[in-house]
Amino acid sequence: IEQTAYQNDKLAMLGKISASIAHEIRNPLTSIRGFIQLLRPHLIHLGKDEYVRIILMEIDRANDIIYEFLNSSKPSAPQTTLIPVRSLLKEVVLLTESEALMKGCQIELRAGEVEEACSISVDVKQIKQVILNLVKNALDAIDGKHDHDGQGRIEISASRIGEQVNITISDNGGGMDQHTLNHLFNPFFTTKEGGTGLGLSVSYRIIRNHGGTIGVESQVGAGTTFMITLPLIHVAK
Ligand code: ADP
């Protein structure tokens, strides 16, 4: 799936605007968060711990949105480090496990097909962000469909084919219709209430900057699979 020049212009402009305002929004958010933490014991004493939880959650959500905007304005050259594919994926699973548990969803990591020592040379923060985006989208798709009946499944797998690593993220969530499939990599395209529509456009750009590819297969009612390929720069012996 190719991104048009128009979409890239949109992303570049978005980057400029967001970099200048994100900082100004983040500072007050940080101080609000700090003061709420200070008030927390008093509010809990009043039996309002649920309010505290919601306030903190919403502040964190606002911060996440700013982070995504900032991410889209990052310079394109990745800062590469060598990392074993398995440990990169394991870290993402660790980060998402509690959310998955809460949604009654099982995350399975199948990295057995990729050697323990198989490493890729990537910007670890950026690639983790991509996988995280995909897993979070999968969780959202499962949340909407299975409604806590405990049948949600996400499978993350990795394999090595020649000089490239393939990573797939599959879910048995609600899947996507043709309209969504046609637009999902466009900046600001979202079907979610409160969604930013930035996760996949940013992910697309990151993967492309790494010389890789990202593709998707989906069926309404059955689920979705995202496929990433990344060039393998080095295999440690
Ligand atoms: P956001 O998550 O903020 O909506 P994204 O760019 O990450 O932004 O995703 C864009 C849209 O693509 C989502 O709103 C959703 O409709 C669709 N989508 C992405 N991943 C999945 C998935 N695993 N299953 C179903 N739909 C998905």
Automatic annotation (TrEMBL):
EC number assigned by the record: 2.7.13.3
Swiss-Prot/TrEMBL catalytic activity: ATP + protein L-histidine = ADP + protein N-phospho-L-histidine
Alphabetic keyword roster: ATP-binding, Kinase, Nucleotide-binding, Phosphoprotein, Transferase, Two-component regulatory system
Molecular-function GO term, any one: phosphorelay sensor kinase activity
Transferase is among the record's keywords: yes
Enzyme class: transferase
Domain Histidine kinase: 20-234
Protein name: histidine kinase
Origin species: Paenibacillus lemnae
Portion of the full-length sequence here: 138 to 374 of 374
